[in-house]
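To: structure desk
From: M.T.
Subject: fold request, one chain
Message: Could you run this one when you get a chance? Sequence is below, nothing fancy, just the single chain.
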Amino acid sequence: MSLVRPIRTVTSTAPRARSRRPYTWKPQRVWGATLAGAGIGIVYGGGSQGSMGRLAAGALGAGGKVVGILPRFMDELEWGHRSLTELRVVDSMHERKQLMLELADAVVALPGGCESL
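Reply: Done. Structure tokens follow.
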């Protein structure tokens, strides 16, 4: 019996600002496409902008499954990525983080910002 279970879904966090670190965008897109190519789904914060928007775009462009978890107030500001496989709207940031962790088999914190901590 193996103690290691297969990784089918990864939650990933990265900086959200769209203009501060544009040099991270291409690696995020490549990371998303790489995960999708390996058949690994992505669970993330659900935004359409910045690094995480690029991550989602890379995965979706490669035919991957991407689930976004977005707090209601962000959805009301129209910050959500509308082309995802699934976008779940939750009541709070706490619920967002909790659900992201529940849905993932692994967590990857990408460099570039303190939001990942």
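Reply (cont.): The CA atoms of residues 36 and 72 lie 27 Å apart. Let me know if you need anything else for the meeting.
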